[in-house]
């Protein structure tokens, strides 16, 4: 699904569930050590999303590397690339691009179900909640509150590699277009500098299908320009850091 909402220059790999143990060699030693004490479910999703990431790297002609999370959940991608990973119940995905094609990537997948009670008030602003009411009246087939949450996760994953700073849910305001499958995130704090210009808006795309909502942002960068090499996944309602 995720490849449908990203440019062709972005290599994507995904799985609708966990791959059999040992697929593509499984985890590299450093990765295995990172989840040696994790429960089986956590190890399985951790493994599958990293197999996906190495498949995406190979699609760009690059060798697979160990993708070990630091204490914040960030991983270092190979020099000259940017990437992002996500997993939720029933779906795992990883995307990678060269820095000449994207300066940062952010993806997220969530179950197409309403957010738990009380979460929407934490992750949204008043204008956003008004927009969700209008969206639900127009298209009740989509869990718009969950889609908003997913889009904000993609915003954070795009933001963090560029700034290495936290971004609160309230520090970006989203507008979702139900017809074009797009959304626009307006940053309410000073945005990151890209190629000497400050970026205040992140444009993204979304898709709802197969009981899932997926969102993605591919922030373009100057051809051949330097780009960040990390990605992070903030623990949220749909899953834990990759």
Secondary structure blueprint with pairings:
Layout: E1 11-15, H1 29-34, H2 40-59, E2 75-76, E3 81-88, E4 91-98, E5 104-111, H3 119-123, H4 126-138, H5 144-163, E6 172-177, E7 182-187, E8 193-194, E9 197-198, E10 201-209, E11 212-219, E12 230-231
Antiparallel strand pairs: 1-4, 2-12, 3-4, 5-11, 6-7, 7-10, 8-9, 10-11
Architecture overview:
There is one protein chain. With 242 residues, this protein is of the alpha+beta class. The protein has helices at 29-34, 40-59, 119-123, 126-138, 144-163, and strands at residues 11-15, 75-76, 81-88, 91-98, 104-111, 172-177, 182-187, 193-194, 197-198, 201-209, 212-219, 230-231. It is globular and about 50 Å long.
Number of strands: 12
Which blocks of ≥5 consecutive residues have pLDDT under 50? 223-242
- Strand-pairing-aware structural class: alpha+beta
Estimate the helix proportion, in percent.
Answer: 25-40%
Instruction: Please summarize the sheet with the most strands.
Output: 5 strands, antiparallel
Number of contiguous helices: 5
How many angstroms does the end-to-end distance come to? 19 Å
Strand content: 25-35%
What is the string of SSEs from the N terminus onward? EHHEEEEHHHEEEEEEE
As laid out across the biggest beta sheet, the strand order is 5-11-10-7-6
Short description:
This protein is α+β, with helices and mostly antiparallel strands.
């Amino acid at each position: 699904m995720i490849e449908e909402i990203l440019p062709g220059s972005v290599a994507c790999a995904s799985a609708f569930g966990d791959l059999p143990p040992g697929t593509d060699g499984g985890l590299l030693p450093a990765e295995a050590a990172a989840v040696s004490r994790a429960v089986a479910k956590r190890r399985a999703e951790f493994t599958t999303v990293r197999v996906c990431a190495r498949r995406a790297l190979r699609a760009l002609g690059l060798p697979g590397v160990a993708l070990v999370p630091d204490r914040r959940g960030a991983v270092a991608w190979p020099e000259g690339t940017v990437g992002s990973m996500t997993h939720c119940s029933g779906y795992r995905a990883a995307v990678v691009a060269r820095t000449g094609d994207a300066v940062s990537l952010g993806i997220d997948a969530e179950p197409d179900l309403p957010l738990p009670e009380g979460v929407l008030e934490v992750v949204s602003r008043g204008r956003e909640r008004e927009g969700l009411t209008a969206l639900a009246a127009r298209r009740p087939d989509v869990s718009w509150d969950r889609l908003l949450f997913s889009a904000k996760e993609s915003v954070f994953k795009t933001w963090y590699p560029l700034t290495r700073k936290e971004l609160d849910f309230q520090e970006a305001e989203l507008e979702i277009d139900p017809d074009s499958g797009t959304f626009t995130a307006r940053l309410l704090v000073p945005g990151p500098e890209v190629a000497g210009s400050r970026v205040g808006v992140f444009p993204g795309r979304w898709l709802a299908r197969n009981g899932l909502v997926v969102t993605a942002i591919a922030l373009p960068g100057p051809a051949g320009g330097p780009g960040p090499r990390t990605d992070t996944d903030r623990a949220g309602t749909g899953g834990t850091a990759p």
